[in-house]
């Protein structure tokens, strides 16, 4: 157990820090500190393309895909420095952290050649089209269908159905869609993962207004949308396995560096408590101290996870730990502000804290709700038995009993 | 930067786990704790043979010369079974000597400690049990060359059987440790009737106890020792919490009600998942604090306080839920759950309670840059 970074890691940190400060003090001054999911979208995409051209988006990628093959520790250092610098929240997260690794793992050579480079350059922005109105936690209940049809230019998949809660679909050119390609199948069987262009016909993307007032997620109606037959990721019918891989990436390294944005938020709360005197209230001071201690622990856990291969129990607990912490921080922020926090005018610290308070309510829902996380921790981490479940409702004209699929919950 | 154990540390962990499994059965632990010394001297002799009594003692004094990480490994292993021994008390005394003792004091006391010829402890808690900054219950006054100690300390680990006591005494502005052999006139040690029946603690009364100048440790170790004490205790608590969780999980897999294991019910499995979160958090904090103690002592205040806070949380919740999810059997004297529950309560208060730890953390709340360095 060693606490010190190696000289190489320190040098890497300086390189990242130097670059970020230079860009964010210079040409990209205007994006510094932009947060949330609606502020300065165009400028932020320009910034993300700049990151791509400068090589940072492919830090972790193997050299074969033009990446820098950075170690886990270097990736964490990058994410930490990124958050520390006040660089804006990422919008191309889905493509870089979810779709690209899935394509590397399951894509054909042709798909890799076609999609990886433009994804890294943020010339393709991706949406994750998994959830449906009736397939949330129970993701295997996906009902959107796709069938192969012949066209003059060759066979295509034709999609019918509806996706929902698709983050940033309104800015995306492509989607990674989990769809049912085996008619009459149910559950995890008969699904395929299709790469679908979102700017063609038969695709209708409607932003959903969120409780925060902004719109980051969308309804995506697929009504005869088409994608070439070759745009299936993995083999047809293998969609569930591919989706599980994607969901594993969803709580990978990219989440480890975010403690530094939590740091920024906690510091904002502490600052508010100092400036309005709330810190003199022993109950508030104790909650702040606890938040501080838990944030440190989050970091230690992240570092501990880096020593592990696969998903250790610490890894399984991570999402629930940080999202619960973040929701408590939101509540603490509002208690620190008092009634003044309820009437904050746009722009200042109080307003940002109020936004964080509202935004944080989604933390226990996305990427597997807190109940699903607890199931995963208990079943995979502690080895507790699975809950008994009623057999899945079979679609019409089906063979009688069917085996429950191995794993249905959204990870 | 690496959070992985070295090969040697991993081996020590395994060996300690095996040893504790062998000697730390429920009956043996209960009998040992209830006996007059509060531990089984035969088990302690085996620990001495394994080198544990010299784990942090420098090699020059015959010890293994290892660090807090290794001591925490041992404390965590013992914590799992609540195995009582004078290990923590003796190692805290050795730590006090190493930090604050001069060459002669170290040469006099560390070798017999390492060889297991004597056990030792530290008396640093106010008789009321509180740990306000600089608050000790023993005063030191000078009489010529000698010094004279008056007052009392409480919650002294294994204080009624230790051969050597390092007593924290107020000396004007400073707090000094004074090395007092147990047989010294004017010193009385009485085992206290603790809620934690698994750990012997004693009250020490000093009435005009006279000591020569060679007994006073010249260095300043009081605050540092409290931090080491909390880092070590947190490891023990974390081990106990992990065991309480494991045993509850085992039970939840076996106990059938309504035709299925109770661990299949979400109300139960989600509660156990929440405990896993606390145990993992405590682990992270405990190993980090141990590494900090060895490598970055200047950061130990927050790291040790965080470890103690997290480990107290984890053990308190795990022990309470251990009782609950065992149902009626968890409320019996024969079941071990109450031993963990009792330990949870007493350990959380030892060397500074949760409020005290939060106050230390609040004092040190830092900016992002400092935190980065702290990684
Ligand atoms: C901000 C945000 C962004 C998102 N972005 C995307 C995206 O980009 N792409 C995408 O595909 N999806 C996205 N989602 C969707 C997200 O994955 C789902 O909302 C989530 O999986 C929950 O599904 P649901 O909304 O249908 O709720 P439900 O599954 O209906 O859950 C409702 C409640 O029931 C509980 N519940 C459900 N099943 C169980 C069970 N077995 N045991 C106990 N309790 C249970 C849940 O915990 C929850 O509290 C996003 C969601 C949010 C909030």
UniProtKB/TrEMBL annotation, chain A:
Residues 129-215 form the Acyl-CoA oxidase/dehydrogenase middle domain. GO terms for molecular function: flavin adenine dinucleotide binding; oxidoreductase activity, acting on the CH-CH group of donors. Residues 6-120 form the Acyl-CoA dehydrogenase/oxidase N-terminal domain. Keywords: FAD, Flavoprotein, Oxidoreductase. Its cofactor is FAD. Residues 379-411 are annotated as: Disordered. It comes from the Bacteria. The keyword DNA-binding does not apply. Transmembrane segments: none annotated. The keyword Kinase does not apply. InterPro entries: Acyl-CoA_Oxase/DH_mid-dom, Acyl-CoA_Oxase/DH_mid-dom_sf, AcylCo_DH-like_C, AcylCo_DH/oxidase_C, AcylCoA_DH/ox_N, AcylCoA_DH/ox_N_sf, AcylCoA_DH/oxidase_NM_dom_sf, Mycobact_Acyl-CoA_DH. One of its GO terms (cellular component) is plasma membrane. Residues 237-381 form the Acyl-CoA dehydrogenase/oxidase C-terminal domain. Residues 386-411 have a biased composition (Basic and acidic residues). Belongs to the acyl-CoA dehydrogenase family. This is Acyl-CoA dehydrogenase. The lineage of its organism: Bacteria, Pseudomonadati, Pseudomonadota, Alphaproteobacteria, Sphingomonadales.
UniProtKB/TrEMBL annotation, chain B:
Residues 226-365 form the Acyl-CoA dehydrogenase/oxidase C-terminal domain. Keywords: FAD, Flavoprotein, Oxidoreductase. SUPFAM superfamilies: Acyl-CoA dehydrogenase C-terminal domain-like, Acyl-CoA dehydrogenase NM domain-like. Pfam families: Acyl-CoA_dh_1, Acyl-CoA_dh_N. InterPro entries: Acyl-CoA_Oxase/DH_mid-dom_sf, AcylCo_DH-like_C, AcylCo_DH/oxidase_C, AcylCoA_DH/ox_N, AcylCoA_DH/ox_N_sf, AcylCoA_DH/oxidase_NM_dom_sf. Residues 6-117 form the Acyl-CoA dehydrogenase/oxidase N-terminal domain. GO terms for molecular function: acyl-CoA dehydrogenase activity; flavin adenine dinucleotide binding. Gene3D superfamilies: Acyl-CoA dehydrogenase/oxidase, N-terminal domain (1.10.540.10), Butyryl-CoA Dehydrogenase, subunit A, domain 2 (2.40.110.10), Butyryl-CoA Dehydrogenase, subunit A, domain 3 (1.20.140.10). Its cofactor is FAD. The keyword Amino-acid biosynthesis does not apply. Belongs to the acyl-CoA dehydrogenase family. This is Acyl-CoA dehydrogenase. It comes from Edaphosphingomonas fennica. The lineage of its organism: Bacteria, Pseudomonadati, Pseudomonadota, Alphaproteobacteria, Sphingomonadales.
């Amino acid at each position: 157990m060693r606490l010190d970074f190696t000289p190489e890691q320190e040098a890497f940190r300086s390189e990242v820090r130097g670059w970020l400060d230079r860009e964010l003090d210079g040409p990209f001054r205007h994006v510094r500190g932009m947060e949330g999911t609606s502020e300065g979208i165009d400028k932020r995409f320009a910034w993300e393309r700049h990151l791509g051209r400068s090589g940072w988006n492919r830090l972790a990628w193997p050299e074969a895909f033009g990446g820098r093959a950075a170690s886990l520790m270097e990736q964490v250092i990058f994410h930490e420095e990124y958050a520390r610098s006040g660089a804006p929240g990422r919008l191309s997260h889905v493509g870089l952290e979810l779709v690209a690794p899935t394509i590397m793992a399951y894509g054909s050579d042709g798909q890799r050649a076609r999609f990886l480079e433009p994804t890294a350059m943020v010339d393709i922005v991706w949406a994750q089209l998994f959830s449906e109105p009736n397939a949330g936690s129970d993701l295997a209940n996906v009902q959107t269908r796709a069938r192969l049809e012949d066209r003059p230019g060759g066979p295509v998949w034709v999609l019918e159905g509806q996706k929902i809660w698709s983050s940033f679909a309104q800015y995306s050119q492509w989607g990674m869609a989990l769809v049912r390609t085996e008619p009459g199948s149910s559950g995890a069987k008969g699904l395929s993962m299709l790469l679908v262009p979102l700017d063609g016909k038969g695709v209708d993307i409607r932003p959903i207004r969120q409780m925060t007032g902004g719109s980051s997620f969308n309804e995506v109606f697929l009504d005869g949308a088409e994608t070439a037959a070759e745009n299936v990721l993995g083999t047809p019918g293998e969609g569930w396995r591919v989706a599980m891989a994607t969901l594993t990436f969803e709580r990978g390294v990219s989440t480890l560096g975010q403690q530094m944005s939590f740091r920024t938020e906690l510091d904002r709360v502490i600052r508010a408590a100092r400036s309005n005197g709330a810190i003199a209230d022993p109950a508030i001071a104790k909650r702040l101290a606890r938040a501080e201690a838990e944030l440190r622990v989050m970091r230690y856990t992240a570092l501990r996870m880096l020593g592990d291969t696969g998903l250790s129990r610490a890894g399984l607990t991570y999402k629930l730990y940080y999202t619960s912490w973040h929701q408590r921080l939101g509540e603490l922020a509002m208690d620190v502000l008092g009634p003044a926090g309820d009437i904050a005018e746009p722009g200042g610290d109080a307003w940002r804290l109020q936004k964080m308070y509202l935004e944080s309510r989604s933390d226990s829902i996305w990427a597997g709700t807190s109940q699903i996380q607890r199931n995963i921790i208990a079943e995979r981490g502690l080895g507790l038995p699975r809950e008994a479940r009623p057999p899945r409702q079979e679609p019409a004209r089906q063979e009688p009993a069917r085996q429950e699929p191995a794993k249905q919950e959204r990870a | 930067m690496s959070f992985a154990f070295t090969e040697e540390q991993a081996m020590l962990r395994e060996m300690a786990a095996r040893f504790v499994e062998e000697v730390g059965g429920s009956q043996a632990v209960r009998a040992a704790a209830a006996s007059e010394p509060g531990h089984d001297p035969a088990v302690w002799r085996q620990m001495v043979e394994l080198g544990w009594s010299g784990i942090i003692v420098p090699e020059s004094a015959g010890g293994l010369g290892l660090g807090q990480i290794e001591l925490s490994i041992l404390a965590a292993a013992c914590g799992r079974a609540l195995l009582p021994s004078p290990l923590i008390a003796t190692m805290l005394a050795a730590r006090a000597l190493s930090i604050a003792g001069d060459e002669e004091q170290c040469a006099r006391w560390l070798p017999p400690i390492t060889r297991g010829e004597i056990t030792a402890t530290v008396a640093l808690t106010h008789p009321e049990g509180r740990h306000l900054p600089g608050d000790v219950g023993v005063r030191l006054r000078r009489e010529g060359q000698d010094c004279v100690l008056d007052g009392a300390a409480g919650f002294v680990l294994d204080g009624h059987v230790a051969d050597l006591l390092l007593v924290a005494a107020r000396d004007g502005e400073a707090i000094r440790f004074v090395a007092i052999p147990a047989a010294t006139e004017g010193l009385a040690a009485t085992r206290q009737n603790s809620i934690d029946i698994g750990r012997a603690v004693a009250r020490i009364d000093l009435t005009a106890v006279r000591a020569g100048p060679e007994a006073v440790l010249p260095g300043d170790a009081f605050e540092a020792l409290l931090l080491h004490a909390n880092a070590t205790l947190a490891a023990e608590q974390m081990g106990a919490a992990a065991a309480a969780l494991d045993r509850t999980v085992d039970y939840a897999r076996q106990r059938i009600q309504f035709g299925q294991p109770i661990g299949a019910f979400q109300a139960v499995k989600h509660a156990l998942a929440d405990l896993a979160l606390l145990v993992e958090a405590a682990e992270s904090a405990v190993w980090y604090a141990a590494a900090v103690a060895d490598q970055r002592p200047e950061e130990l205040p927050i790291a040790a306080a965080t470890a103690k806070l997290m480990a107290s949380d984890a053990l308190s919740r795990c022990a309470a839920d251990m009782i609950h999810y065992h149902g009626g059997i968890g409320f019996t004297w024969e079941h071990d759950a109450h031993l963990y529950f009792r330990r949870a309560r007493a350990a959380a208060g030892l060397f500074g309670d949760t409020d005290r730890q939060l106050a230390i953390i609040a004092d040190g709340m830092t900016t992002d840059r400092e935190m980065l360095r702290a990684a």
